[in-house]
Each structure stands twice: as C-alpha cells, then as structure tokens.
Amino acid sequence: MSESPQSQDTDRQDVEPPTVEASPLPRVEAVSQSPTVALGKPSETAADIATPPETEKNSKGDADAPATPEPFAPGSVIEGKVFGMNKGGLEVQCGDVRAFMPASQVDLKPLKDISVLLGETVRCEVIEADDKRQKIVVSRRAVLRREQVDSRKKLLEEIEVGQIHGGVVKSLAEFGAFVDIGGIHGLVHISDMCWGPVEKPEDVVRPGDKVKAKVLKINKERRRISLGMKQITPDPWGTVEQDFPVGKNIKARVVKMADYGAFARIAEGVNGLIPMSELSWTLRPAKPDEILAIDQEVDVLVIGVEGKRRRISLSLKQLTDDPWKGVPEAFEKGATVKGKVSGLLEFGALVELKPGVEGMIHISEISENRIRTPGDVLKIGDEVEVRILNVEPKKRRVALSMRAPREMAAVAAGEPHVKKQRKKPLRGGLESHFEW
C-alpha cells in the first residue's frame, strides 16, 4: 500500500542530514556553447547536483549504476582543484566529483614535471564521461587550445602597424628570431634586432627572453607579422655627426676584426672602423689582431663621419706624435745619414732612419756594380750610410742611395759627366731616375 505524500515528506525530513551553510563557488562560464558547471555546496553529492528531485529512482539509489551528472557531459567546461598525482596524470576535485586528467592533456606542450600544478585551481573540459565505470576524464589542454585560438583571432583583428607588443622569444633561425606576442608568432629579422651590425641572432636574444617589438608589416591572409626590436629606440646614427665630430678624442671597445682593420663600438648601435693604416706609425701589422684584441678598451680619434652612409673612421695612431713631423728639416736633400736595413724587397731595400720613418734604396742605387737582388749586398739589420736623394712628406717617402754622386765618380775617373736618359722605367714603379 502506497504511502501518502505527506508521510513521504515526513520520512525524508527525518533521514536527510542538516546542511551546512557555505558560500557556493563562483560559476565558471563556458568558453563555447557547452554547458558550464556551477559547483554546489560541499554537503551536496554529485547525484544531488545532477538528479532532479522528481527522479525518484536515482535519488533513492535503486538504479544499477548512477548516471553521469548532466553538467559533466563531454564538452562541458568545469573548474576544479588539482589534489593528487599518479603515474598517468593528475587527480582533480570538481566539487564533490573526482576527475582524472591524463598527463598528455595537462598543457599545450608536454610538461616534464606535472606536479607544478598540484594545489592549483584549473579550468578544464570534460572529454570522457563513463556512466558504468563512474569515470570522468578532463583536459586542461583543450581549454588552453580554445583560448589560444580565440586570442589569436582577436589579436589579428586588433593588431596594427606601429603598435608595440611584449612577447617571448620562442625560437631562433639563421635569419632572425620568432617571437610570441599573444598566440601569434612574429619574425624579428636579424637586421631589425639592433642598430649595430649583428652576425648571429643568438648574440642578441635567446629562447625564453622577454622582449618588446614594434609591428612593421602585417599579412593577415598568410598570418605573417614582421616585427622590429630596434625600432622602439631612437636611431643613434641620426645624431652621430653632432655627438662625434671630427677631431674628438673618445673611448671605444674593439668588437670585431677584419682584414682591412678593426671595428670599435663608440656607442650602443654605433661602430667605427680603425683602418690598418691608422693602427700605428711605426709598426706594419699584417692583421689588426697583432696590435689589438677583442673587447680591448682603446682611446681613438674621430677622423671621418658620414651619418647618411653610417660610417665613422677612427685612428689609433693619431693620438701620438707623428714621427714624420720635421722630417724635411732633419733629412735635407744631399745629406749623408746612417740607418739600419729594416726590409728587403724585390726592387730595393728599406732603411729605418729613425723610429717610424723609413726610406728606400732602389736596387740601382745599392752598388756601383750591377746586382741581381738587394740581398746580394744587404741583410736585414745591417747598418749602412746613405745619401738623401729626395724627401716627399705628403707621400711619406724618402729616396736614398748608397752610391757616390755621379759627378764625383766622373771626376775620379777623369771623364766629363754626361747624364744618361733611361729608356725603361725603374723596377718598383718609379717614374724616372732621381734628379741630383
């Protein structure tokens, strides 16, 4: 005999335990049209949340297996707290329901250590709900993927040329670096990393670095964005002619070597060249690293500035006294001086007259007799007495001779001196013989 409704209500009131008043957790809005779970009070069970009061069969527990609560249907976005970890993934407490999150569904990319999420509240999507096994499987990765797609779509709609965005360097290539600026990867070309020359992107940035970049170009159809890091700072070459006028003595740091000289940084993004000819008055280095070293701090003199061409010429030697100063007065034409053989050439010999000043004896002026090479008569280090034939300060040339004047030779032989005209030019590129 069935009980009256009144008696049923009385029995339920006797059996039902008192509920503890607690503030319900905030609802989690669904990212898509999927239903979103509103977590109930701590005293409520999953069956209480999912089963309406009129479903008498399930509420009394006389079903073979409880059905999966409707808010936990596949596709629903729920919120829960990670409370445990096992071999395959994480355990998530979603209200009074426990769910399993496989390790492959924890993040967009595999995490080496998924325990970093222990104790964290996460949003995830139900990807499997098994009524018979009472099993719920959730994915945080699906929610992150959906948010990423929405973020990219929104960014592509709002992004404009000239905007400055913060981002993270994701990867490097030979031609530049890819930067994530909110779900979209933009390319910073190697020429847009900084105002100074860059040989390799890794010299400026590394994967994981946080950078700021300016939007230079946008191709929405191909989803490509060109970024520039140097464009967010003023071009240092714009005021280089005012900042580094010719004749200014400045400090610089050697940053690169080349066959034709050394590059030195005088300001951030501004490198100047010290040519080989400006390294030393006295030394004749074959390579700049014979005098300088990378990262060496040096004092240099600005000898040339071309702002539009982005070129600055520097000198190391001009900060010291020029040894050629006063050479015409010290070595007058016709004077006899002593020197030391400093080098042998195919067409003559070099003689050091004083530190930093060398003269040359042409092969025809080494001996009264015909010789095949300068080495037949001279050796490096020999001290010789020479006569000054000619001095050219601008060209930094001094012509020397070891032979006696021809007039003296002719007088000694008792013959009148007759000047012979050469039919062929002298070896070594000299135009003609020197005038006595």
Supply the key terms.
33% strand, disordered N terminus, single chain, OB fold (Dihydrolipoamide Acetyltransferase, E2P), 5-stranded antiparallel β-sheet, mainly beta
Task: Describe this structure in a few short sentences.
The protein has 436 residues and is mainly β. The chain has helices spanning 5-15, 46-50, 56-59, 140-158, 240-243, 327-330, 406-413, and strands spanning 77-85, 89-94, 97-102, 121-130, 135-139, 164-173, 176-180, 185-189, 210-219, 224-228, 249-258, 261-267, 270-275, 297-306, 311-315, 336-344, 348-354, 357-362, 383-392, 397-401.
Structural summary, described in words:
The chain has 436 residues and is mainly beta. It has 4 domains: 5-144, OB fold (Dihydrolipoamide Acetyltransferase, E2P) (Beta Barrel), CATH 2.40.50.140; 159-232, Nucleic acid-binding proteins (OB fold (Dihydrolipoamide Acetyltransferase, E2P)); 241-319, OB fold (Dihydrolipoamide Acetyltransferase, E2P), CATH 2.40.50; 327-413, OB fold (Dihydrolipoamide Acetyltransferase, E2P) (Beta Barrel), CATH 2.40.50.140. The protein contains 7 helices and 20 strands. It has helices spanning 5-15, 46-50, 56-59, 140-158, 240-243, 327-330, 406-413; strands spanning 77-85, 89-94, 97-102, 121-130, 135-139, 164-173, 176-180, 185-189, 210-219, 224-228, 249-258, 261-267, 270-275, 297-306, 311-315, 336-344, 348-354, 357-362, 383-392, 397-401. The model is unreliable at 1-63 (pLDDT under 50).
Number of H/I helices: 7
Using the alpha-carbon principal axes, give the shape: rod-shaped
| CATH topology-level fold name of the largest domain | OB fold (Dihydrolipoamide Acetyltransferase, E2P)
What would the average pLDDT be, to the nearest integer? 79
Give the name of the CATH architecture of the largest domain. Beta Barrel
Instruction: Give a quick account of the main beta sheet: strands, pairing sense, barrel closure.
Output: 5 strands, antiparallel
Give the CATH superfamily of the largest domain. Answer: Nucleic acid-binding proteins
Structural class by helix and strand composition: mainly beta
**Tally of individual domains:** 4
Instruction: Kindly state the percentage of residues in helix.
Output: 10-25%
Seen as an oligomer or otherwise, the chain set is single chain
Order of helices and strands: HHHEEEEEHEEEEEHEEEEEHEEEEEH
What is the terminal separation in angstroms?
149 Å
| Low-pLDDT residue spans | 1-63
Overall number of strands: 20
Order of neighbouring strands in the sheet with most strands? 3-2-1-4-5
Radius of gyration: 44 Å
Strand content: 25-35%
CATH class of the largest domain: Mainly Beta
